[in-house]
From TrEMBL:
Source organism phylogeny: Eukaryota, Viridiplantae, Streptophyta, Embryophyta, Tracheophyta
Protein name as annotated: ribose-5-phosphate isomerase
Family label: Belongs to the ribose 5-phosphate isomerase family.
Top enzyme class: isomerase
GO terms under biological process: pentose-phosphate shunt, non-oxidative branch
Organism field: Salix viminalis
Gene3D superfamilies: 3.30.70.260, 3.40.50.1360
Pfam families hit by this protein: Rib_5-P_isom_A
E.C. number: 5.3.1.6
This protein's pathway: Carbohydrate degradation; pentose phosphate pathway; D-ribose 5-phosphate from D-ribulose 5-phosphate (non-oxidative stage): step 1/1
Tree of life domain: Eukaryota
Length: 228
């Protein structure tokens, strides 16, 4: 069994092999160490963020955290937080978020992300662009050389004539992929990002550029913390 007990974290004793979910839990618990009483928290979405929300609720119920206000990044996280008794609010009432903790689908060495393959990127981007600190929690399988260079890029579009928008996006995604492969820097990702957002019918995309302040990576050899 992994060395995770009551939130205590320690590197796995070799040669123990941890599952991907156990690594996600280690990263999540480490991130929750940054939560302080009184904070307004962005509550992320996905199997990694779920561990963080569970841990926050556990600390609240133990009295080790007080006066936390959560802002969920999806309906699913909202339901989880309600079921765990975490007090909730929204950006209208709390436009400044102290800390958000969320997973990601891809993370590069500049802490750029691809998010949204779990289907909630718009709320995530709204909340995580309003936070003072954004901790991303991943297992090491999420590390990539260049975000957007491979795998699906989530894009939220309006339902009206969505196939038309999809066709127009296709050429832009070819362009975005080419930027990642050839230039590999944030400037070109931003160019690709801007081009996608200018397309009528697009609501938001899954490139989270220059937003994460910290990435916590859990791997077989322990935890790595990367700060911006
Ligand atoms: C949801 C997301 C998730 O954070 C991302 O898909 C990672 O999910 P998981 O922690 O389950 O691997 O962006 O839209």
């Amino acid at each position: 069994m992994p060395s995770i007990e009551s939130g205590a974290l320690s590197p796995p004793p070799s040669p123990l092999i941890l599952t991907q979910d156990e690594l996600k839990k280690i990263a999540a618990y480490k991130a929750v160490e940054s939560v302080q009483s009184g904070m307004v928290l962005g509550l992320g979405t996905g199997s990694t963020a779920k561990h963080a929300v569970d841990r926050i609720a556990e600390l609240l119920h133990q009295g080790k955290l007080k006066n936390i206000i959560g802002i969920p990044t999806s309906k699913k996280t909202h339901q989880q937080a309600v079921s765990l008794g975490i007090p909730l609010s929204d950006l209208d009432s709390h436009p400044v978020v102290d800390l958000a903790i969320d997973g990601a689908d891809e993370v590069d060495s500049n802490l750029n992300l691809v998010k949204g393959r779990g289907g909630s990127l718009l709320r995530e981007k709204m909340i995580e662009s309003a936070c003072k600190k954004f901790i991303v929690i991943v297992d090491e399988s999420k590390l990539v050389a260049h975000v957007g260079a491979s795998g699906a890029m989530p894009v939220e579009v309006v339902p009206f004539c969505w196939k038309f928008t999809q066709n127009r996006l296709q050429s832009l995604f070819d362009y975005a992929g080419m930027c990642c492969e050839i230039e590999k820097d944030v400037g070109d990702l931003k160019t690709a990002s801007d081009a996608i957002l200018r397309l009528a019918g697009v609501v938001e995309h899954g490139m989270f550029l220059d937003m994460a302040t910290t990435v916590i990576v859990a791997g077989e050899l322990g935890i790595t913390i990367k700060n911006k």
